[in-house]
Design brief:
Length: 169
């Protein structure tokens, strides 16, 4: 248990503890007097570790909770975890997978295989023109083929598509 920590223990692991605090959203502050060993701020307030005359420590605020979490890799955080940004790929993955099941992995335009890296969602009616982000309006195409067809109307897009006997690698 970390119910008591000594100045030596804290000093020895101080750099890692500070990194831990920062990583978990705390802000390390400058001590304001010689008895303060460590001062940090969380979204809930300021915590200070004091040193007493006999090199014992007094942990105030959240410093004991934080130290215990540090030692046990516990779940403490100084501030709410940053919202996980959903990447474009994560958002479109279910649609891509549905299209792969429906159409296979061939590019809508050139008929050649697309890979995870060069595959894109093509909106037949562009989103800018009110085309829905729905399977009925979507096909898979190479990024490049998608860009090349960007200015075309739906009819032109479908016409641009190579006839099946010209498709394939
Ligand atoms: Zn293509």
């Amino acid at each position: 248990m970390a119910s008591r920590i000594t100045l030596a223990q804290l000093t020895k692991r101080r750099a890692r503890f500070e990194a831990f605090l920062t990583e978990r959203g705390a802000q390390i502050l400058q001590p304001t007097n010689e008895w303060e060993v460590l001062r940090f701020k969380t979204s809930r307030g300021t915590s200070i570790v004091y040193r007493n005359a006999r090199d014992g420590l007094t942990l105030t605020g959240e410093s004991m909770t934080a130290w215990t979490a540090f030692e046990t890799s516990g779940p403490w955080r100084a501030s709410p975890a940053p919202k996980k940004r959903v990447s474009g790929r994560e958002k479109t993955l279910p649609l891509v997978n549905a299209l792969l099941r429906r159409d296979g992995s061939a590019c809508f335009y050139c008929g050649k295989d697309t890979t995870e890296d060069d595959r894109s969602l093509e909106h037949l009616v562009p989103r800018a023109h009110g085309g829905p982000n729905h399977l009925s309006n979507l096909v898979l195409a190479h990024r490049k083929c998608n860009t090349d067809a960007g200015h075309l109307s739906v009819m032109e897009k479908i016409r641009r598509r190579l006839p099946p006997d010209h498709q394939g690698a």
